[in-house]
Amino acid sequence: MSNSNRRPLLAKLASIAGVIIGLAGVAFVVRTLLTKRDEVGDAFSQLNGVTLIASLLLGLCAMTLIGFLWTRMLVTRGHDAPPRSALSWYFAGQLGKYVPGGIWPIVGRAELAVRGGVPRPDAYAATGLSMVTTYLAAALTICLGSLLSWTYPLVGILGFAAFALGFLAFSNATLRTKVLTVLNRVSPRASALTEPRRLLILTVTHLPAWILMSLSTSVTASAFGADIGIMHMFFITSASWLAGFVVVGVPGGIGVRESAFTALAGEALTPGVAVSLALASRVVFIAVDLLGALVAHLIARTAPSTKT
């Protein structure tokens, strides 16, 4: 079987596996809700709605930062991407993650940039680079959270070792060529990753977004009266989001993120509170995506036309 024929087959198998894992995650969450329904009911009865507004604003800041960094990637490629317009492309594209398939956040964001005048190859390259550095930053936050909270410290130690080895390998021209040859079989946009120093800088600049997302989840936890350390939340939030991202074919990582969050928070919270917090956090970030898309669209409409 040729590489061109093998790629769609592998993508289809990965998508099927992702759907199965997602359904298993949903089943786990539903089972927890049913078996712990009294505990879940008590948790939601204590929910402080005002606190959720603060959580939503923190989440909105996190997503706006990621969108702004993506905008800068377009600009550094020499394209006109005014923040007011580009952020509307970003947030509208974000809504694509709720469509089954896993590729729609990339396609949606990139195609909106193309409609805004960015050449298609650069739009997709910048979007792919944004996704890679965003989730590399998530992995980095997992390592930091695991060590600072001393939760699964081995994860942090091994993770930082993997980052160091990966950076050293990618900095070597010969090894980088071999890595890109492999990556090019998956995506022809892999050439966007050819600058190790820039890749590292972009990864580090995404860290504040994950800190804000973790703070948002911590505030949501306080709305339930749950007591969980912020450093521990760095680990749990980033790990659950990363799990939802790597399992392809599941819209927005639904089920996967919640089950991962519930399992990881099980040591600090009771199962009922953990699953309640996971679901409430999901609702908060859906609201973030919808509010961000609405506000960004309204702001973009006030932007002066650049056409002559």
Automatic annotation (TrEMBL):
Annotated InterPro entries: L-PG_synthase/AglD
GO cellular component, one term: plasma membrane
Transmembrane segments: 9-30, 50-70, 123-148, 154-175, 199-224, 230-256, 277-300
Membrane topology, record value: Multi-pass membrane protein
Keywords from the named record: Cell membrane, Membrane, Transmembrane, Transmembrane helix
Localization per record: Cell membrane
The protein's name: Unannotated protein
Gene source species: freshwater metagenome
